[in-house]
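User: I'm writing a tutorial on reading structure tokens. Could you give me a worked example: one chain, its sequence, then its tokens, then a sentence or two explaining what the tokens reveal?
Assistant: Sure. Here is the example chain.
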Amino acid sequence: MKEITLSIAVAAIVTASSSAFAQSVPDFKGIDVNADGYLTVEEWKSSGHSEADFAKLDADNNQFVSSTEFLDATGSTEATKDSESE
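And here are its predicted structure tokens:
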């Protein structure tokens, strides 16, 4: 019974952490200061977020976060697909 309770508690913490991260992320356009359709680590950090969180967003490890990577990682509906269609 203790194992089940512990598993449920861990699952709740992981879910809350992921949800809190996604809720704390501002919209893509608000972070993309130069409006090039990609986020740099400098833009990300200047918006008050950590370099470690940037690395989590940068799925292809190219040092840029596209709107698709942003959407996939955060679940945000605020990102734009403009950079992906060019």
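What the tokens reveal: The chain is about 60% helix and 5% strand. Residues 9-17, 81-86 have pLDDT under 50 and may be disordered.
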